[in-house]
Amino acid sequence: MKRLQDLTMIKKLVIIVTIFLAGLIICGAFSVWGLRELSDRVELIYKKNLIPITQLGELRSLNYQMIALNSAHIQAYDSTTVKKTEQEIEAVDKEMDDLLPKYEASIVSDSERKTLDQYKENWTKFKEVREKVLHLSRLFSKDGAGELRTKELAPIREAMIAGIDGLIEENKKHAQDGYQVSQEVADNLTAAMIVGIVIMSLLGLLVVWIVARLITGNLSNLLNAAKAISSGNLAMRSTVETKDEVGELAKVFNQMASSLEQAREQTDLALKAQAAEVSGLNNAISKAQAVIE
Q1: How many helices (DSSP H) and strands (DSSP E) are in the chain?
Q2: Which of 148, 195, 226, 266 would you label with 284, given CA atoms 20 to 30 Å apart?
Q3: Around Cβ 274, how many Cβ atoms within 10 Å?
Q4: Contact partners, residue 54, CB within 8 Å, separation at least 6
Q5: What is the rounded distance in angstroms from the CA atom of residue 164 to the CA atom of residue 61?
Q6: In the 8-state DSSP scheme, what is residue 107?
Q7: By C-alpha distance, which of 195, 196, 188, 186 is closest to 35?
Q8: Distance CA 14, CA 7 (A)
Q9: pLDDT tens profile 137-165
Q10: Each residue of 235-245: b (16+ CB within 10 Å) or e?
């Protein structure tokens, strides 16, 4: 406390401003960290869940497109349509084969990996059975192709679509869990920010109150001493002993008060000497008058 009292006014004000700036910097840094943390979590949800859900949606759409192309192939009776349909089937196959590795790179759980492996196994079986169906269709054995599609190809197709739906639901659950965690982080950051702002504000107000009390206390002491001297009590002195501007002012004030007191003492002595001299002169005159008489 003594060291704080001895600081100059400028330094005391600098301390106050520094504390408030430090509070702002700390709160600002904490806010930036919190926003970055939330941004990272949102990005994680986007990369690990939303993009895979989009890819799975595309994969499911390709599955339904494949189903439609198989039906179109069985229903086609001219070579041109058959050839065109087979080209479209080949293009869909390529899209699905390209899409699977992209989705596989985003897998985060063992259950998801297991479901995808089962899907890929069904996809291999589907292509084998489909080739038999298309072969019968090329030979214009449409009834045989339709029967094989219904008995063997359809169950595999349903299992593949069910697997995709399961993967979509699992990714939705992961996204929901990630959202809840992000919400909890946001709530905790908000609470921490409020607590931090309150603490820094109270600390700043405490320092301002201490510094203001030191300054006003010393000024009040000096003011009371000045009032006492103005009322005639030249023996009154300020008790401020700090080394700041108020302390220096109190030191100069006390020196001035001492000078005034010494001047009054000297004046009193001179008046007493003058009174004694006048009294002696009066006595001498009285004696001279007595002799004359």
Answers
A1: 8, 0
A2: 266
A3: 10
A4: none
A5: 10
A6: -
A7: 186
A8: 10
A9: 888 888 898 899 899 989 999 999 999 99
A10: ebbbebebebe
CA distance 133 to 70: 8
Number of Cβ within 10 Å of residue 109's Cβ equals: 12
**Residue at token pair 């080739």:** 131
Cα-based distances in Å from 236 to 225, 230, 254: 6, 10, 8
Enter the pTM of the model. Answer: 0.59
Between CA 172 and CA 268 the distance in angstroms is: 101
- Tell me which amino acid residue 28 is: G
C-beta separation of 264 from 233 below 8 A: no
pLDDT tens by residue, 71-98 = 898 888 888 888 999 999 999 999 998 9
Residue 171's nearest CA partner among 49, 67, 86 is 49
Amino acid making up residue 229: I
Eight-class DSSP state of 78: S
Residue 53's SS3 state is helix
Length of the chain: 293
CA of residue 174 relative to chain centroid, distance: 25
